[in-house]
Amino acid sequence: MIRENPPVLFRAACVLTLDGPETEAFAVDGDRIRAVGDVAALRSRFPGAREVDLGASTVVPGLHDAHVHLVHAAEGLLHLDLSAAAVSGVADLLDRVGAEARTTGAGAWIRGGRYDDAKTGPLTRWDLDRVAPANPVLVVQVAGHWGVANSRALDELGIGESSPPPAGGEYGRSPDGRLDGRLIERALMNVVYPATARGGTALPAASPEDRLRGLERVVRRWHAAGLTSICEALVAPSDVDLLRRARDRGLLTLRVGMLLSVDHYDRARALGVGSGFGDDFLRFVGVKAFADGALGGRTCLLSEPYADGGHGMQTTATEDLFEAVATVHRNGDRIGVHANGDAAIHLVLDAFAAARRNAPRPGLRHRIEHCSVVDEEILLRMRELEAVAVPFAGYVAYHGDALNRWYGPSRTERMFAHRSFLDAGVTVAGSSDHPCGPYEPLVGVQSMVTRRGLGDGAPVGLAQRVSVEEALGVYTTGSAEADGVASTRGRLAPGYAADFVVLGENPLTADPYGIASIPVLATYVAGRRVHG
Q1: pLDDT tens digits for range 333-374
Q2: 3-state SS, one letter per residue, for 440-509
Q3: Contact between 480 and 365 (Cβ < 8 Å)
Q4: In this structure, what DSSP letter does residue 5 have?
Q5: Average pLDDT of the chain, as a whole number
Q6: Domain boundary among 192, 217, 232
Q7: What percent of the chain has pLDDT over 90?
Q8: CA distances from 331 to 269, 314, 366 (A)
Q9: Judgement on whether residues 128 and 271 belong to the same structural domain of the protein
Q10: DSSP code string of 310-362
Q11: Among residues of the chain, what percentage have pLDDT more than 70?
Q12: CA-to-CA distance for 257 and 284, rounded, in angstroms?
């Protein structure tokens, strides 16, 4: 007779399984959940099993960010932190850039990130010229879709007053018509991001060892916030190599799905790589394409103008977008298209519908990344097309009343529309888009539940509030569905991955305005404690 090894029993004051009623214990066998129930029943079923008493805590399934930028966050740690939390205003920002110039010496590139113009103030090339005239400087805005370069940087990038902007991008200009240093959309992406740059970036690359050190630090931080799984939302082959090296060294304790930039898709297909390729810790979720600009950068494509005018930008030509969606769909792969504004989302849905008509692929579900501004027609079409929404979870908490100023209170009632998605039967996943937003999933949960800014308390689209349980579902079962792993992640149930988070307070009974402050006592991935 073959005897099975007994599992390990975990008990807590409350276990929220997201698969049924609350309970108090579960059994972990290796990297999987074997059973869930009350302590007495599990003791009887598994006599002699070792027990781990988690005390007066609450256990939830592992939290899964379905759209975040791990590699970009890791590289960001190598550059100046110019976020609103790190600098008190433009003068402080410039002091930091100037100090870096004195440290690095003339000619060295200086890069800064997470600059928030709405909170810190406006910045131009001439401001940067004053404090670092002998260094090329690039400061990227927090949304990641535009940045400010100084004169030396523009020269090194080959951008002059008569340079034509790239398709899907713009060079910002001052009222007198001169370049003001802003690189907008493709004008920035072609310079900074390997996943979208044609022919490589124009900036000096960090060393592989530096990138690995940054990645290790980010993974630790994210585990401490309760993250067990993510989808890295834009990768190039060099990023995949970095993640593989991290896994080989034991640094990648986070489950990582990847959306491959559409610019590299043909090469990947030639190598036999498609959606689902990989393993439980590093796999391809699908392909990433772009339709418009950024919500926080105020460049997304809207059907009605911004409060201060303009409709935003379409960053990929319609013909090119339709062709990309059709190709990926025809090959049986998932595509996630970045579309913030309602005009862009309608365009993406048109592309999804055309692809399905021309090449039926039952069960193949595509994603709309961010999917920020919706209307009733969008909701109906998304349900019909089985499209998955991946909206920002924490943007209300981060931006607060600025969203009302930029988009108008009536429009914010249909932005980050978690309530509307759930009511319409549209699968909705949890997303931070960090470094563009706060990575902590409990901040996202509080934001979805209260719809109020963390800093100013401003109400933003209160009609879209959801319950705490629904918000947890967005970050667990919804995100698992978005990444194509709903049969193995997102719940504490027999056969599912033993990924779970131990919280110091039950979010279902906590003060909704204190959810973001609930302590993350421990985080487990594949049955192994990675934090706490």
Answers
A1: 999 999 999 999 999 999 999 999 999 999 999 999 999 999
A2: CHHHHHHHHHHCECCCCCCECCHHHCCCHHHHHHHHHHHHHHHCCCCCCCCCCCCCCECCEEEECCCCCC
A3: no
A4: P
A5: 94
A6: 192
A7: 85
A8: 9, 26, 13
A9: no
A10: ----B-S-HHHHHHHHHHHHHTT--EEEEE-SHHHHHHHHHHHHHHHHHS--T
A11: 98
A12: 6
pLDDT tens digits, 443-479: 999 999 999 999 999 999 999 999 999 999 999 999 9
Is residue 171 domain-shared with residue 223, that is, in the same domain?
no
Closest among 396, 500, 505, 491 to 446, alpha carbons compared: 396
Position 196 pLDDT exceeds 80 = no
Q: What is the dihedral of CA 441, 445, 448, 453, to 10 degrees?
A: -80
Could you tell me if residue 178 is inside a domain?
A: yes
On whether residue 355 sits in a domain, the answer given is yes
364 and 286 inside one domain: yes
Query: Could you tell me which residues come within 8 angstroms of residue 326 by beta carbon, excluding any fewer than 6 positions away?
Result: 351, 354, 355, 358, 359
Tell me the residue range of the domain where 312 lies: 64-70+208-525
Mean pLDDT score, 37-60: 96
CATH of the domain at 347: 3.20.20.140
Token pair belonging to 335 = 């595509």
Separation CA 94–CA 106 (nearest Å): 16
**CA-CA distance, 101 to 139, in Å (whole number)?**
13
Task: Express the helix, strand and coil content of the chain in percent, nearest 5 each.
Answer: 35, 25, 40
Residue 37 covered by a domain: no
Distances (CA, A) of 120 to 93, 142, 144, 201: 8, 11, 16, 28
348 and 389 co-located in one domain: yes
On whether residue 22 sits in a domain, the answer given is no
pLDDT digits (tens, 9 = 90+) for 66-114: 999 999 899 888 899 999 999 999 999 999 999 999 999 899 999 999 9
Out of 129, 164, 192, a domain closes at 192
Confidence of residue 4 (pLDDT cuts 50, 70, 90): low
